[in-house]
Design goal:
Length: 383
């Protein structure tokens, strides 16, 4: 059977999360054997260029990594549809494009947001009847075999382990972020053979802080600044702007530029704790296999807290770490500080790390989202 061709439609709502997922999916589909063409439609090239430095937002984008890029303007470019149109996170394709889909044998996939809620399994792969006759279905990423899975490139965990085995690559990446040499030297001590994850007094922790503005980041800094162990906190530019930068007691806060997705993944791999937000960063932090604090996207009526509770019920985290994650999302500074101190204790830290390693290995046993999506589209073609 001939390979499929894809259109992926992305409207950038949350700056980087939507385009982060779509760009990873587009590149993975383009690399998979037998697929014919992948075209990514993006309305905000400026946000896109923050995570893809090869993109010039002021020019018509050329193909990158085998993916054709389309600036989704208004009116939209009038292009012939590919075999499969992927509508990411509820952004309808252009009206004229949908009309042209109805004239061909096109599939329409509604790629939904990631959720661990139980109802997702019953809605995954459900058809959505269209008056114009186009075949449409819902496709849910998820954490169980009855969902579409998570985005994971072939050999990702092996690539992670190989990269971590060479400390020189970590040093090179830290220099690319502009981290001062004294802080790099502190982190290099963590790469000495034989050191365990519970650090001795001279071993610095590395933490990535990529949260929404209302995260209680000051409580995290307060706890880390009083620790016997030094900490380097890597904060992308513009994130938590109220948080003090520079040396704060035992903690050093470094504001770094945004980096390409591959380098962001590597920062997560080499960090001891990843404080991340949204969907794309959560999945990448899971693959890092390190302790994480997830700042879920806030929704009206605290709907996001129900989603967080569903994820905590599924993920292998202990009760104290679940309380910490909840306090982090509620913005409870005092509870965060007390629970962080427990989590950073030798026993709490060992438990947290073991659970994170196990979660990454468990999820890697499931099919990845791109593979599941292609199988589903082929099944729809035959039906």
């Amino acid at each position: 059977m001939a390979g499929l061709s894809f259109d992926i439609f992305c409207r950038v709502v949350d700056n980087f999360g939507d385009i982060g997922v779509c760009w990873r999916l587009a590149r993975q589909l383009a690399r998979m054997p037998g697929q014919r063409a992948v075209r990514l439609w993006v309305d905000d090239l400026h946000s896109f260029s923050r995570i893809e430095p090869r993109l010039d937002p002021y020019r018509d984008p050329p193909p990158i990594d085998g993916v054709e890029l389309v600036h989704w303007t208004s009116p939209a470019p009038d292009l012939a549809p590919h075999d499969v149109a992927i509508e990411a996170f509820g952004c309808d394709p252009p009206v004229r494009f949908i009309e042209r889909m109805a004239c061909g044998d096109c599939l329409w996939i509604n790629l939904e947001y990631l959720s661990a809620e139980p109802w997702v399994e019953s809605c995954h792969a459900m058809p959505s009847l269209q008056a114009n006759g186009v075949r449409k279905a819902f496709f849910f990423p998820g954490f169980t075999p009855r969902t579409g899975g998570l985005l994971r490139e072939p050999g990702l965990l092996s690539d992670r382990d190989a990269w971590l085995a060479d400390p020189r690559q970590r040093t090179h990446l830290l220099r690319k972020t502009g981290l001062p040499e004294p802080q790099i030297a502190l982190l290099q001590k963590a790469d000495l053979p034989g050191l365990k994850m519970t650090p001795p007094p001279n071993r610095a922790r590395q933490i990535v802080l990529f949260s929404y503005p209302d995260a209680p980041a000051d409580s995290l800094l307060d706890v880390l600044s009083e620790q016997a162990v030094p900490t380097v906190i890597m904060v992308p530019a513009g994130v938590c702007p109220a948080l003090a930068r520079g040396q704060q007691g035992a903690a050093y806060v470094h504001e770094m530029p945004f980096v390409a997705q591959a380098d962001f993944d590597r920062l997560l791999w080499s960090s001891d704790l990843n404080c991340i937000r949204g969907e794309d960063s959560l999945v990448r932090a899971i693959w890092a296999g390190k302790p994480l604090l997830w700042h879920i996207y806030p929704q009206d009526g605290d709907a996001h807290m129900k989603k967080l509770a569903a994820w905590l019920a599924l993920a292998p985290v202990g009760p104290e770490h679940a309380k910490l994650m909840t306090a982090w999302n509620l913005g409870d500074r005092h509870a965060c500080a007390a629970l962080l101190r427990q989590a950073l204790s030798p026993a709490g830290w060992a438990d947290w790390q073991a659970a994170s390693t196990a979660w990454a290995a468990q999820q890697a046993e499931l099919p990845d989202l791109a593979e599941t999506l292609i199988r589903f589209c082929r099944k729809m073609q035959k039906s």
